[in-house]
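fyi for ur records
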Amino acid sequence: MSSVEQLIQDSRLWRGKHYRDDHSQQTGNSISSGITQLDQQLHWRGWPLHSSSELLCEHWGIGELSLLMPLLKKVSHKGRIAWINPPFIPYSPALLSQGITPEKCLLLYPSEPDQWWAAEQVLASSAFAIVMTWFTRQASNTTPYRRLQAAAEKGHCLHFHFRPLSSKQQSSPARLRIQLSSSASQLAVEVLKQPGGWSGQQLVISRPESLLFKQQAVKKWPVYHSSRPSYQVVNGRTDIPSIIDPQHSDRLNDDQSIIHQPSSSAPTQPH
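which gave:
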């Protein structure tokens, strides 16, 4: 590769609006997000490698992780994933349903003064393929964010930093910044900043059906049947089994909310 080609491929070089590098995937600058709609709007056709990307959310729990699920699934078979101070504890069965191995995930909750230091150490360790961070307190200047960017480069790691939408107007050294908002089963995405290209792209992505929580009536909950006598909740809710042994029914509260359904040979009075 000539010196001119090397200069063109440098991630720090700004490029014109109509310039499109169709070889970005081959140069190793990015990795596909696994979402075709998103890749088409990103100049590098995917998440920038070995750098920080910011996801700005109006609030947590709007489906922001669904944007990363294809990537998490892809890398979990090869490397480990670090979750630093997530607002909610990751649900292992849900991760498994998406093909993500929980054994490859490390969950960290450092104290508030140590959050930035811990994230920097994890990023620079080269022990993780992806590091995701949520900080309870935002930095007043860009120095800590620059340190995280440098640590991601040193550790050859993908860093996704989740920040509140109120940080939108603040300067950031992150190579990619994306704003997220949610409406029903869809996730609205706006590119605020990206390497090598213009920003302002907007798209709407449908969240996977398997990630949407659908509450069912109690009567539709699955019932476990066994050879032991069953129990029934009678305070307006039915068909919920209990695993309490009849021999220890005296340990129940006096509110009589759980009643033993006896066999034909047993007394008919409730415990």
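The longest strand covers residues 176-183. thats all i got for now
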